[in-house]
Input
Amino acid sequence: MSTIPPLPDRAGPGRPREFALDDAVRDATEVFRVRGYHGTSVQDLTEGTGLARGSLYKAFHDKRSLFLAALDQAVAGALQRIGDNLAEPGPAKTVIRDTLMGYARRAASTEGRRGCIMTAAAIEMVPEDAEITAVITRMFRRIEDLFAATVIRGQAAGEIPAGHDERAIARHLLCTIQGLRVLGKTGPTERDMAEIIDQTVRILD
Output
């Protein structure tokens, strides 16, 4: 039976009061991504961030506010990374494959076993939670936009057939990313993931 990898070590209780909020949010993300929102207790968060309960409440008011901050931080980082990757010079097919392989490598690593807070939120809280649904929907739409723009770039260069529907392809690639994140929880090898990418990029031919 597989087990969840341990969380990275964090500073223990007594973390300086002048803590960086971004660092605390980043540490909380590690807790939420493993345990999910509903499965995370305030005690889990104090242990994961190294903050005393009072400091945690003073900075973030409640668990939901901290979760939203963690989700926003994760979404911003993910969009920045995928945008930068797809903006790399070179053939569109190559940058799309390289971007997907980046996700595949992370999914096949220990990081991938810990899961993804964004995917976890989508599974656990959408569509019941309207605010979380809006955040996840915007993120998915933005990823789709980035992939569609890259497909159009490839079509303009003559490397991707002009008759291909860039939106349909972009949605397919978005689904692939989300599938890689979920599959990563089961401990696949990087070779397993690379085979998925090889099959996926054939839709660009």
Summary: Residues 1-17 have pLDDT under 50 and may be disordered. DSSP finds ten helices and no strands in the chain. The longest helix spans residues 130-156.
